[in-house]
Each structure stands twice: as C-alpha cells, then as structure tokens.
Amino acid sequence: MKKCKRLISKNIIVNNEYTPSLSILSLDELWKLHEIGRHIYESAPIVGNSRDRSLHASSGIKRFGVKKAIGWIDIKLELAKRIMKKCTFCFHKCGANRINNEKGLCLVGKNSFISAEYIHLGEEKEIIPAHTIFFTGCTFHCVYCQNWKGAFRQTNEHFYSQGKLVEIITQRFNEGAKTVNFTGGTPEPHLLTILKIVKYLPDNITPLFVFNSNASLSEDGLKLMEGIIDIYVPDFKYGNDNCALRYSGINNYLKTVTENILFMYNTAKVLVRHLILPEHIECCTKPVLDWIKKNIPDITFNPMFQYRPCYKAWNYIEIARMLNENEIKFLNKLLKI
Ligand code: SF4
User: Fold this and answer.
1) Does residue 80 form part of some domain?
2) What is the pTM of this model?
3) Which of 40, 97, 203, 313 could connect to 309 by a Cys-Cys bridge, CB 3.0–4.6 Å?
4) Same domain, yes or no: 171 and 304
C-alpha cells in the first residue's frame, strides 16, 4: 500500500529557528507559513511511491520567541481553529463562530458528531474495506437526501472525543480497514476534527484517508486538506446550476464543484460519483460525463443507479420515483456498460 500523505506532512518542519508561538501570528502570517510547508511538500523528492519524509526548512519569520520546530500539521491545526471563529471551511463561507458553538448553515457547531461508524464493504474497490465515519450536518440540503436521518436528525448523533476517534480508527484498522472514509452528510464542516486525528493517530496506524463529500470546500478548506487526504470521492450531482438550486438550494454549483474536483485531481487520487436522478439524464448525467471526459478522463467514474425517493423528494413529482427501465437501458448504452 502507498504511504499515507499525512505521514509525509506530519514530518514537514516549516521553521526550525527562532519561532514565536503560533497563537500570536496573524492569519496572513499563518497562511504564509502554510504556503512554505506546501512548497516543501510539493517539491519533495519522490522516493519509491511516496515523498521523502525527512524534510525541513526555515520559514524566515523571526521574532522574539522560543527556539522550536513547527510542523506543517501544527500550522494547519492553528489555521483551522482560527477559521472556526468565523467559519469559511466550505463555499458558503457563512462566518458562524463555531468556537462559541454557533451553528452554521451546515448545522454544525463546535464539535463533530457522528451518526454511525463501521467497516463498509459496499464502496468502490479502491477504498474497501473502508472504515466509514458518518458525520452529522451537511453543506447541502438536498430534498432527496439518501442519508437524511444520519445527516440532519440530531437525535441519533454521538459525540466522540478526539481520543475516542483515535481509538476507534485504531481498532477498525486492526480489524482490517484499509481506509478511513470520512462522509456524512459531508466532511467539509469537520476539518478541525480530521486534522486533530492526523495529529494524534499513531504513525503505525496507516489507513489511507478518504474525503467522501459534496465537493464544496472553500479555497481555505482545500488548502488545509492538501497533504492530508489520499483519496477524494466527490459526488458530482448536477450538470447545471438550475437543478442544483432547485433540489439542493445551492447557487454557483458548477463553478464550486468543478474547481473542487480539479484541485482534488491535482493533489490526490480522485473517484467521482454521480447519483443518477430520474428525468435528469439530459440535463445532469450527460453534462457531468462530458466534463469528466474533457477534463479528467483518467479518473474512476462511478455512476450510481440506486436512487430512491426519500426525505422531501415526494414533493417533486419528477424525482418521486426510481429510474425506469427505459432510462436504465439508455444509461447502459451511454455509459457503455
Ligand atoms: S462548514 Fe460551511 S456552512 Fe458550515 S459553518 Fe463553515 S462555512 Fe458555514
């Protein structure tokens, strides 16, 4: 198995000279340090299937302070904590003060809650056996949400402390999980939790990290996840902005999702999923396929046929049914299955 990206990132030292405490640096200064870490990560020599781990550099920022090495991961953690005071993890950039437990549009406050976690064998072959962790809350509010009880019903959610998360990931890894599959809902609101796991998970526990999402990270969120996530599994739901607005209440969908997927593609492995909606082959499935063929033809594409109406989908007559036989025949030809 390939070495996890986070093991490389955890060994990147951005400043090994006189360095102030990260807590007194401004956000701009932190991003500058982060960029230096990213540059080291990007320019590191490749050894075997991975990058050399013995990396360090001086950041050039010198102030009064202690002589201390600062890891790239510590800078990411500090940035994530700061951002949560006025949250911009996802494209909504709603600015909720989540440190004070204010909930954002995603309905997530200070802590990450989990509706379920188990070893999942029903995912793509590249990621199974997957230790799937279902976070609650979501950046989208899709009327047909296939997991709405887990994503939005807050009666069955559980708080896992950082220690408990590390413990359960260790346990599932020892039971045979090859990956940790962060999903939900969607993992975008949970970047600080993911970074804490990276910091505290022992280096001998080596599942690959999978970010199974709506592809709705902000620029800041994407930068924080670089060097952390091994495999992205974005759900490319719609082929146009109108359908995204109608069913998920989202503006600027295509720009957000395509920018996210291109960033993911340039920084890690990508498997794109597309849940096929009835009556939406011309307006959504075809344009999604065309975009992938044109821009990222070498990725794994998983068209999903299992749509079933649930949650509020019954209020939308055109999607209040499963795919019919004609649609499936047409799709089989289109997808050359
Ligand atoms: S993740 Fe997005 S929706 Fe949630 S609080 Fe942050 S910016 Fe707002």
Assistant:
1) no
2) 0.93
3) 313
4) yes
